[in-house]
Amino acid sequence: MTDPSTHWRRLAGSAVLLDGFHALKHALRFGAEVPVAVAVDRGAALALAGELAPDVRGPLEALLTEVPQAVYAALVPRPHPTGVAALAVRPSREAALERLRRLPRTAPVVVLDQPRNLGNAGAVIRLAAGFGATGVVTTGTLDPWHPTVVRGGAGLHFATAVERLDVAGLPPGPVFALDPEGEDIRGVELPDDALLAFGSERSGLTAELRARADHLLALPMRPQVSSYNLATSVAMTLYHWSLGRGRGPGAPDALEAPEAPEALGAPEA
Ligand SMILES: C[S@@+](CC[C@H](N)C(=O)[O-])C[C@H]1O[C@@H](n2cnc3c(N)ncnc32)[C@H](O)[C@@H]1O
């Protein structure tokens, strides 16, 4: 058997770091391919699985290799309190794009237009996974698979489709762009095939995204408050979508387990 550190170092350049027990748990649940996983205390990690996630205890038993604390600390940039880390194969871009572009769509795609904050992007991916959104697309330079985003997303990148695209290459569908100057969202039902677009923390929606928008919608907010945090804006909008005709997770006609991708993580403003 290959030494886990050697195996890790061979894969680390191209793989996705799953930092901590919960990220690994979510990735396994949503079909991630995990070639290597380590724990400082294998027994404690398996006990945690038995207590919190019995559905993944079996796969973890087969996967986890115990390594000394110093070896673990040398493999990860920041040790996690659970002392667990793993590497997963990044899902293919082609499969994710096919999923994002496929019509008809049963749940919206979230578009983050030039986001800046890695923590916000992770929180949004976690929200998209929780609501069963089709995926999250980012424009601009932020890498939505950056290790800090994956950490903020708690490993839930594997429960939805996550890619970076230009505005010109966005998936098909009506664009509902969120902006404090828009029409009150409460009077609007959001369709399942919508692209729900949000601006950057600093400067809001770009001119390019505004030009592609079919509707500008505002979240209720009292005068003198300038704006909400990006991730909380996404949360309110997805919740609003889920209320329309009773959609989203737990709704009578909803898919309980969103389709897993083929082969397929301190917020700022
Ligand atoms: C922190 S805000 C951006 C604030 C930025 N200074 C601006 O000029 O718009 C980030 C994004 O969250 C969404 N957002 C925040 N508050 C909103 C509100 N009250 N209504 C609609 N969208 C909102 C928008 O998409 C906005 O671009």
Helix and strand arrangement:
Elements: H1 4-11, E1 16-19, H2 21-29, E2 36-39, H3 42-52, H4 57-63, E3 64-66, H5 69-75, E4 84-88, H6 93-101, E5 109-112, H7 118-131, E6 135-138, H8 147-152, E7 161-164, E8 175-184, E9 195-198, H9 207-212, E10 215-218, H10 230-243
Parallel strand pairs: 2-3, 5-6, 5-9, 6-7, 8-9, 8-10
Antiparallel strand pairs: 1-4, 2-4
Helix pairs in contact: 7-10
Bound molecules: S-adenosylmethionine.
Tell me what you see in this structure.
It is a single chain. This protein is α/β, with parallel strands linked by helices and 269 residues long. The chain has 2 domains: 4-88, 60s Ribosomal Protein L30, Chain: A; 93-246, SPOUT methyltransferase, trefoil knot domain (Alpha/beta knot), CATH 3.40.1280. Helices cover 34% and strands 17% of the residues. It has helices spanning 4-11, 21-29, 42-52, 57-63, 69-75, 93-101, 118-131, 147-152, 207-212, 230-243, and strands at residues 16-19, 36-39, 64-66, 84-88, 109-112, 135-138, 161-164, 175-184, 195-198, 215-218. A 6-stranded parallel sheet has the order 7-6-5-9-8-10, with helices on both faces. Mean pLDDT is 92; it is low at 255-267. Bound molecules: S-adenosylmethionine. S-adenosylmethionine (SAM) is lined by residues 178-180, 198-199, 201, 203-205, 218-219, 221, 227-230, 233, 269.
